[in-house]
């Protein structure tokens, strides 16, 4: 066979693979399970956790689903695997967005309602969330085996000062910024104060940190499901349970390797050259004195 055939085969395979991925949604597309805890208070439409972020930014009760009090959870699925990809910025693989915000604009003090995050692979390929889930442990560390709820110190109606109670690796801890500040596919560095430039915030997670029930690394190369559960067992002063909220879950955009970028730039021209293809390729953070909305 002549070399042009092999070139065609390689380029077509690569481009079909790339454009198939490009057509996949970057956000969760399916609710597998929704089991809210106490006091959902009307924000109980799980479909609000699907698709992209709502326009604008800052805390928005209109675009989130509440998980209710301690133990309430949601399991979300995607139309593609989320890869444990070292090419992702900072190594973070997906982002969970909630409606947390800074108290009085102070980036050290968060109005937060932490939820712990678990992940699973659709090992039996049946599209159901009946597989083993693995915890991505955060700070505070829930121990081994993991024990929840976390301490009440990680919530407060006047916010949580991260200098005293650092909180990382939980959902609904970091604010969401507006579209003008960056991309929902660029992760914020949870170890730094404030939001990473170019990111819309949210809480980023690394699949490589997932552990089994014995505390051993799960060594997952990819995942299919994300489970978010309210991690704190406390109530507001008017006896409504503190609840984790979810706005969206996004697959982080990888940074292409140089060779991949070159293929994307040269793939179509090479096909045109050899096969005469002529087809035309068609900081909004709420300022508040307390956690009241």
Identify the strand order in the major beta sheet.
1-3-13-7-8
* Rg (C-alpha, Å): 21 Å
Amino- and carboxy-terminal Cα gap? 68 Å
Major sheet: 5 strands, antiparallel
Helix content bin: 10-25%
Number of domains: 1
Q: What's the SSE pattern?
A: HEEEEEEEEEEEEEEEH
The number of helical segments is 2
Care to count the β-strands?
A: 15
Shape label = globular
Show unreliable segments: 3-23, 259-287
Mean pLDDT: 83
% residues in beta strands: 15-25%
User: From the helix content, strand content and strand pairing, which structural class follows?
Assistant: alpha+beta
Any overview of this molecule?
α1 (about 5-25) packs across α2. The protein has 2 helices and 15 strands. It has one domain (about 5-275). The protein is α+β, with helices and mostly antiparallel strands and about 290 residues long. The chain has a 5-stranded antiparallel sheet, with no helix packed on it. The protein has a 3-stranded antiparallel sheet with strand order 12-4-15, with no helix packed on it. The protein has a 3-stranded antiparallel sheet with strand order 5-6-9, with no helix packed on it. It starts with a helix and ends in an 18-residue tail after the last helix. The chain has helices spanning about 5-25, 260-275, and strands at about 30-35, 65, 75-85, 95, 100-105, 105-110, 115-120, 135, 160, 180-185, 200, 205, 220-230, 245, 250.
